[in-house]
Amino acid sequence: MTSTNSSFEPTSGISSWDWANRGTSHVTFSKHERVPLVEGRNLGHGVNGPVYETQVKGVRLAWKRKFCRRKIGGDELKEIEIIKKLSHIHAIRLAGSYTHGPYLGLLLYPVAQCDLATFLEDVDFLSRLSKGLIEKPSSDDIAEHSFRCCQISNTDPALTHLNLVVDCAKSRLWRILGCTASAVDYLHQNRIRHKDLKPLNILLSQDDGLWVTDFGHSVDVSNFSDSATSGGELGTLKYCAPEVAAYERSGRSADMFSLGCIFFEITALSCLDLRAQRGLRSRKDGSFHNNLDAIFEVFETFGSSPLDHLPMALARMMLSKNPESRPSSSEVCQIIHFLSSFFVFEPDVFQGFGCVHGLHRPTPNEKKSTVQEITIFIGNTSHEDHREFVVRYGEKRYKQPSVFFVEISSPDLIESVIFFQHSSSDEGVIVFPKPPFARRAKLWGTYTEAVVLVLKQGFWWDSQQASWIPGQDGGFRSILPLTWELQLHSPMESEMRQERICS
After folding, report:
1. How do beta strands 395-408 and 192-193 pair?
2. H, E, C per residue of 432-456
3. Interatomic CA distance for residues 439 and 381, integer angstroms
4. How many CB atoms lie within 10 A of CB 434?
5. Would you say 223 and 78 are in contact if contact means Cβ atoms under 8 Å apart?
6. Which residues pair with 114 in a beta bridge?
7. CA 370 from chain center: how many Å?
8. What is the H or E stretch that residue 337 is in?
9. Mind giving me the DSSP string for 191-247?
10. Residue 277 · residue 271 · CB < 8 Å
């Protein structure tokens, strides 16, 4: 018999909390009994109905009720069993549950301040307001959106400069990407498919609080040899993958498509307001999967800052029509860790970009047994006399062959060189495990090229620009991010850098 706790401890023992003084965390109330809960504010709407705030023994909880047309059995209780398995800083937790006639109730912790969909609307409203695109806004609307943005982005509510509020809120949006990907990776590592990822199911609070919620459509495939399933419920049509909408077999990569939709909405907000984004999905049902052609046109010229095309390129990878071409959740998290190293060049986007939950990065030994100076050349060639005329997305363009290269005087110390491509490229990430560290491409425009130099284990970069990322073997690697502006008007452009490697 499982022991129960009368006091609530958010970090442990939630599944055994005696919330109703019945000696168990799951209570069966008779039809004639009254459930001892009081509805508070409406927190939103889940798959099966509204969710309200309630309070139990001084603890604020989210109260979710589900009406079951048939007798409550295994299918109806699966959401409870899935949430019970979860133990991650970015996943909602189960505080208690009950049955009451045809109703199944869940008590969830914690209570958030809003969901991502609401926060996106807030940021969009204030951004358009700062540009003078909203006529005669009410003072109440401005106050509501501003206050919530300040709460979620840990900004002083007394801040009166609208542009500063918007900047802080957008920085918070960038940090949401890594935390959400970390939560999805945790689910997939534990063989759980969410099946309804969308902004409404990502809860936010101050101090960078974020929780993935609503596991009503989720499936635990721990006991299956294959994580793919056939047909079943769609989840939310707007965000579901093409194979899900077609009722074909789908696996965890369908979650990655939905995550790509979320990444797109957040990243595109730097160039396109939500109304313009909805305009991209004007065909058929307004879903992403039925409007990918219009969305992919955005990738061609995206960029409001030198490097914000990098997370957009990651979104493009996840929005592939082919499920097998999408990166896994682990690969997405790894890419995000690499991209977070570019905060030295663009802190507004990449500061806190990667989720650091559970990571304990090493501290290099101050006693450097060996210090080695190396020379690095970065740049690109361009062959203007070999350019060719193409039509892409209805536009006439000239594309000319180029080679991007990284030359290192001691390549034996390098584990890999990773090129991160512009969102217009079909390949978002290209890894070179050995020299030559160079790639060929045909360019029709310029952008900021980004690469990361990964050292072999046991070595680290002695540079203020360097950082650490977790390796696939459980260890850490020292990485050095580099950028340069591509040049198309001379046969070759390069720059030289001197760096130090320690061991």
Report:
1. unpaired
2. ECCCCEEEEEEECCCCEEEEEEEEC
3. 11
4. 11
5. no
6. 204
7. 39
8. helix 329-340
9. TEE-S--SGGGEEEETTTEEEE---TT-EE-TT-S---B-S-----GGG--HHHHTT
10. no
Q: What pLDDT is attached to residue 1? A: 40
Q: How far apart are CA 351 and CA 175, in angstroms?
A: 8
Provide the token pair at 47.
């798959």
Specify the DSSP class assigned to residue 248.
-
Are 444 and 389 spatial neighbours (Cβ–Cβ below 8 Å)? Answer: no
Cα–chain center distance at 320: 16
> Could you give the maximum distance between any two Cα atoms of the chain, in Å?
85
What are the pLDDT digits (tens) for 269-305? 999 999 999 999 998 889 999 999 999 999 988 988 9
Tokens of 477: 């690697």
User: Which H helix or E strand runs over 278?
Assistant: helix 274-280
Query: How far is it, in rounded angstroms, from Cα 214 to Cα 47?
Result: 7
Helix orientation angle between 252-268 and 162-189, rounded to the nearest 10 degrees: 170
268 alpha carbon, distance to own chain's centre: 13
Other Cβ atoms closer than 10 A to 94: 23
How much is the pLDDT for 7?
Answer: 57
The CA distance from 442 to 401, in Å, is 4
Residues 475 and 359: beta-carbon distance below 8 Å: no
Q: How far apart are CA 34 and CA 263, in angstroms?
A: 43
Q: Which helix (H) or strand (E) holds 413?
A: none
Dihedral angle at the C-alpha atoms of 167, 420, 256, 279, nearest 10 degrees?
50
Helices 252-268 & 116-130, crossing angle to 10 degrees? 20
Residue given tokens 């909390």 in the structure block: 17
**Cα 41-46-50 angle, rounded to 5 deg:** 35
Judge contact between 241 and 257, C-beta under 8 A. yes
pLDDT digits (tens, 9 = 90+) for 455-492: 999 899 999 999 998 877 778 899 999 999 988 778 88
Residues 486/447, Cβ–Cβ less than 8 Å: yes
Domains in the chain, ordered, with CATH?
14-109 (3.30.200.20), 114-345 (1.10.510.10), 371-502 (2.60.40.1970)
CA nearest 112: which of 66, 182, 154, 60? 60
Question: What's the number of CA atoms in the CB half-sphere (13 Å) around residue 141?
Answer: 12
Positions in the chain whose pLDDT score sits under 70: 1-15, 46-47, 159-160, 223-233, 358-368, 384-398
Question: pTM for this one?
Answer: 0.92
pLDDT value of position 170 = 94
The residues near 318 (Cβ < 8 Å, ≥ 6 apart) are 256, 257, 259, 260, 263, 326, 327, 332
